[in-house]
Design goal:
The protein is α+β, with helices and mostly antiparallel strands. It contains 6 helices and 11 strands. α4 crosses α6.
């Protein structure tokens, strides 16, 4: 694909997000679009988004958990950017008119106090670079019709980044084993998912380490900065949302996180 082709893909995805509009898969126009090219498109998309005054505050990981991989039919993890405009603060609602066909998934999020730069970051280094962890909910929202896409499509589309909500309760990453935190997610009071953080590659710090190394490779040597956060991927499968829904996830020691959909 040419630079012009990739720019067109980046702009098409971003405009669809801004206008809350579905688009056909980019691979229908560019069948050669693979994951590696998708990250080039995502980098260009990020330049466009930042040029419009938005700021990267963190990153989101995709398909790091067994249940999510089974749901999506993939064995490959992925990553995207999280921007300041995506944040839903505790007590605020999630607005359907700002989304297309959203789904929610519970995640554990690492907030950095030290920089992490690949290519050889380890899970132990991630733990020592983490200031605290929090319970969180991510609202994913693919721009593609019927939420269907290939690996190249989803990476180009910022891996379906929509909105996110972080708990106000901060947790010491060394207080107990972060791979053994149980969670339960409910939709309108009914339990729809139960799992533990070991679903994320045995321990979520491993997912952050893998991401830091892949990010270094795909961005020409960039690292993760203090103050940025990394959502480590859905621990359960993702659940579709509609107006009027109430979502709550209870993460053991990390406490609950919740929102209403309006």
């Amino acid at each position: 694909m040419t630079q012009e082709d990739m720019l067109w893909c980046a702009r098409t995805s971003w405009e669809a997000e801004k206008t809350h509009s579905e688009i056909p898969m980019l691979t229908k126009t560019y069948p050669q679009l693979d994951r590696l090219t998708g990250y080039q498109i995502q980098n260009l998309r990020n330049q466009i988004v930042e040029a419009e005054g938005n700021r990267v505050v963190g990153y989101k990981l995709g398909s790091t958990g067994l249940k999510k991989r089974q749901q999506m039919g993939t064995a490959a993890s992925s990553y995207g950017r999280l921007y300041d405009y995506m944040r839903v603060r505790p007590g605020e609602p999630v607005r359907m008119d700002e989304l297309i066909h959203p789904k929610v998934e519970p995640e554990i999020t690492f907030v950095l106090k030290k920089a992490l730069t690949g290519p050889y970051v380890t899970a132990d280094q991630v733990m020592h670079a983490t200031g605290y962890v929090v319970a969180s909910l991510e609202i994913i929202d693919s721009r593609y019709e019927n939420f269907k896409f290939t690996g190249g499509d989803v990476v180009s589309d910022n891996i379906s980044g929509g909105k996110y909500l972080l708990s106000d309760k901060r947790y010491d990453p060394f207080a107990s084993d972060l791979g053994l935190i149980g969670l339960e997610i409910t939709l309108n009071g009914d339990v729809c998912g139960q799992a533990a953080t070991c679903e994320i590659m045995g321990h979520p710090a491993r997912a952050v380490a893998e991401f830091a190394n892949n990010f270094w490779k795909n961005t020409g040597g960039q690292g993760l900065l203090p103050g940025q956060f990394i959502m480590t991927g859905g621990i359960t499968q993702a659940f579709s949302l509609k107006r009027g829904d109430f979502v709550q996830a209870r993460f053991g020691r990390l406490g609950p996180v919740e929102f209403h959909v309006v």
